[in-house]
């Protein structure tokens, strides 16, 4: 709301200064997307689940750097890394702005109301890291497919119950991109 108020105040000043008879050039279109700090518990839970989920995904894709995989798999892993680093930055910023903790807590019942814990375990990531070279790519793709499927599930929760426009837009992007990544990786397994 503070940004909207500042934008409106700035527009008022500019309008007041335009008293001459010279026609003004057409203004550039103004974005209708307004950032807001309005949020509900679903928005918070989405971010609190997504941040550690993304960080686990970053651990998974980092393994492609040190293991033998096809170039297209390395490229996909690198793209996922860049995207998820940016998304984590946004999500942690929103949680700070909303004065919410980054993590929801360790209570196993905490996630029961929305399908359980959607994270990839450290043990599964360690097992992947120890996979022999000849089996690594297939194991990598299978784990990453499952991981991204869980990201889609988390995004669905936000799409259905969140109210914050930025968080909902992120959930839409996650839903679409991870669904496409899953299809791409399934193609690599054929």
UniProtKB/TrEMBL annotation:
<protein>
    <submittedName>
        <fullName>Uncharacterized protein (DUF305 family)</fullName>
    </submittedName>
</protein>
<feature type="signal peptide">
    <location>
        <begin position="1"/>
        <end position="26"/>
    </location>
</feature>
<keyword id="KW-0732">Signal</keyword>
<dbReference type="Pfam" id="PF03713">
    <property type="entry name" value="DUF305"/>
</dbReference>
<dbReference type="InterPro" id="IPR012347">
    <property type="entry name" value="Ferritin-like"/>
</dbReference>
<feature type="domain" description="DUF305">
    <location>
        <begin position="43"/>
        <end position="187"/>
    </location>
</feature>
<dbReference type="InterPro" id="IPR005183">
    <property type="entry name" value="DUF305_CopM-like"/>
</dbReference>
